[in-house]
TrEMBL record:
Keyword Transcription: no
Domain GspL cytoplasmic actin-ATPase-like, chain residue ranges per copy: 38-143
Family: Belongs to the GSP L family.
Designated name of the protein: General secretion pathway protein L
Length: 362
């Protein structure tokens, strides 16, 4: 069931307020003065035609702010007052064009203040000419809430003999009968071509009561999301743990392959380390110590190794043949720089070469 009240704003204070009560797409009642408005009512105020200037223009599809800026440019070309000093409202697009309404901000504020004093907060404010049916051609006129208004396809104004003649170029507007007028007005109220309650005069949204059912539903959704996130983390941790266990098991299997047969159970990595230490020998082991000694001796000219002997205590005995004492001192100092402790025997001169032993320890 559709319930609405069409409230006609008087052109001046000397004229009374008029209203139509609409129910189920019919004018149920009408009267003068401010009507009693119930909570189920949708009040639409009708602005007098002489207070609103209407334009139609082709504005490209864009955001509301951009459409309003373009409408102000159109209005500035058709009015002597600066567009930023006027209240400009833009209607919805229809057949490539939009209706543009211009009204003085003081008039708009005065109407809303008068309605507020009567306890009315209108859902929309529409210009009176736009309640008339849109003619396919020519112009139409009607008495609407005590105001005689006229309309064309892209025009709307307060019907005055001189003004009407100028707009229509002498053509007499057709009179709209009562039933057609009311049907058109009811349709315009249901879907206004333009609403003046825009920008600074837009209707404020009332705060509604908290929907606790919705709040509980959102809380459940948040809880389920948290549980899902936690479950994902738990699955990831378990996956990493299983992967680490598998890697450790594989490492233990590989390490056990390097142990001799018959080795008892135990930590395969530890036992493999012990075997490597035994094979390598004490200290830094034979391999690392010998490699370091060979690298240093090769770097010293006219120096060569004649014999190697690896001792059980990790010391490496190196027999050297050198060109002279300078080479022996060089080898010894470089071994010390490499982190080894070096003890030299007494070198002897034989056949033009200097021979002797060096004991190298970690």
């Amino acid at each position: 069931m559709t319930v609405a009240t069409l409230l006609f704003l008087p052109p001046d204070d000397s004229q009374p307020w008029r209203w139509w009560r609409i129910r189920d797409d019919m004018v149920e009642r009408e009267g003068e003065g401010l009507p009693e408005v119930t909570a189920e009512d949708r009040v639409v105020a009708v602005a007098p035609a002489d207070a609103v200037t209407l334009h139609w223009a082709s504005l490209p599809a864009r955001s509301p702010a951009q459409a309003l800026a373009a409408a102000r440019v159109v209005v500035s070309d058709a009015t002597a007052e600066p567009a930023h000093d006027l209240h400009v409202a833009v209607g919805r697009e229809r057949d490539g064009e939009r209706a543009i309404a211009v009204v003085a901000p003081a008039r708009m504020a005065g109407w809303l203040a008068a309605l507020a004093r009567g306890g009315v907060d209108p859902a929309a404010v529409v210009p009176a000419p736009l309640l008339l049916p849109e003619p396919e051609e020519g112009y139409v006129r009607a008495d609407l809430g005590g105001q005689v208004v006229a309309r064309g396809r892209t025009t709307g104004w307060a019907d005055e003999p001189v003004l009407t003649g100028l707009v229509t170029r002498g053509e007499t507007p057709r009179l709209v009968d009562r039933d057609a007028l009311r049907a058109a007005a009811i349709g315009a109220v249901a879907e206004p071509v333009i609403d003046l309650r825009q920008g600074a005069f837009a209707r404020r949204r009332r705060r509604t009561a908290i929907d606790w059912v919705l709040v509980r539903r959102l809380a459940v959704l948040v809880g389920l999301t948290a549980l899902a996130t936690l479950a994902i983390d738990v699955v990831r941790i378990m996956r990493y743990s299983f992967g680490a266990d598998a890697i450790e098991q594989r490492a233990a299997t590989i390490a056990r392959q390097g142990l001799p047969r018959g080795t008892g159970d135990g930590d395969a990595s530890r036992m493999l380390g012990e075997r490597l230490s035994a094979l390598r020998g004490p200290g830094q082991g034979f391999t690392r110590t010998a490699a370091a000694v060979y690298a240093i001796v090769e770097a010293v000219p006219d120096t060569e190794i004649t014999a190697l002997q690896f001792e059980p205590n990790g010391a490496l005995r190196v027999s050297l043949s050198l060109a002279g004492e300078a080479q022996a001192n060089t080898v010894k100092s470089r071994l010390a720089d490499a982190g080894f402790t070096v003890e030299s025997s007494v070198f002897q001169q034989s056949a033009g070469r200097l021979t002797g032993d060096m004991t190298v320890r970690s």
